[in-house]
Structures are given as structure tokens and as C-alpha cells.
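Comment thread on ticket #2218

A.B. wrote:
> Attaching the input chain for the structure job we discussed in standup.
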Amino acid sequence: LLVPAFGLSGWAFQGNGWKGVAVLAPEASRTLLLSVATGGLCALGAFAMARTLQGRPRLAALTAFLALLAFALPGTLIGTGLIRLWNVPDWRGALYGSGTILLLACLARAFAVPFLLVWRTLGSLPPSLEEAARLSGLPAWRRAWEIQLPLCRGSLMAGGLLAAMIAAGEVAASALVSPPGIQTLAPRLFSLVHFGADAAVG
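C.D. wrote:
> Ran it. Output below, let me know if you need it in another format.
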């Protein structure tokens, strides 16, 4: 993301890419934090969800379908749905006015990738591992922590990284739900390229 961002900032700022980097530093740092949070939460949530849905193939397939639907739908629909759900005059309105709404948008868009990876990895493990751990008296949380989590490490890392990349490049949903004064790098770059950088510089 950084190389294309530098190139686009140079285009928007009439060839002065370093000036663009300086102006876009707040959005870049915010995007980095958002991406790391999205990748970590998606990976952990995917493992917990896939672990919970073991032995429930229909419910797991429905969850996978809904996650893929959120990933495949246009970001404008996801953003509009979040606005209708959270922009209300109660405690949800306070959450909507904070940067947390951006995290929710990115989680909705990116969760499918790590969930599918971890779900398939858990499904490929031999049932004898779980059965032997259960017969040895290990509780469910220890079976998940000591046996399944290490075996899913590769899928978790790959899924978390892909989720972070999706969050870093999210434009449509982020542009709709971003609170005033809180913007990420991709929508900001899109705005600068489309409308020009005079207002940002001057």
C-alpha cells in the first residue's frame, strides 16, 4: 500500500511526493493502526467462531455465506447499513461518532477471508487429535489453546495479514461512515486525486 500511496500522493501534489507524505501522515498512521486492529481481531474472531462451529456444518456454512456476502457486497451498502444501525440517538450514536465505526466497517468487510482459511484448516485436522485430547481430560479451552491454535498458526497469520490489507484499502464503506476529522488513507488519497490538492496545501 505504501508504494502506490506515495505514487498517488506525488500525482495529487504535482510531483512532490514528499510533501504528500507529510500532509497525509495523520491518515497514514490512522490507517496503520486500523489495519493492525482489523487483522488481529479478524484472526482471533475467526478462530473463535470456527472453533465454536465445529461439528455444526450447516451453521458453519451459513456463517461462511454471510461473511462472504459482506465481503462481496459493494462497500456503499455496508456503509449505509452501518449508518442505519448505529446513527441513532442512544448509546449507539456515541459509538457512531467515534473512530470505532471505522473498525466495525473494516471488520465486516474483511472477516470472511480469515474465517474461511481457519475453518478449512480446522476441518482438515484429524478427528483423532480432538478425541485423544478429550479422553486425556483436557478441557475445551486447553484443547483449543494447546492443540488447535498452534496448528492453525499459518492460517491465522495469512488471514490476519489479508484482513489488514483489505482494511488498508477500504474506500467506499470508510468514506460513508468516517466521523468528522477522522479519515483513513485510501479515501483521502481518492479525494486528493479526484478534487486536487490545493485545499490541502493551502
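A.B. wrote:
> Thanks. Noting for the ticket: Residues 89 and 108 are 23 Å apart (CA to CA).
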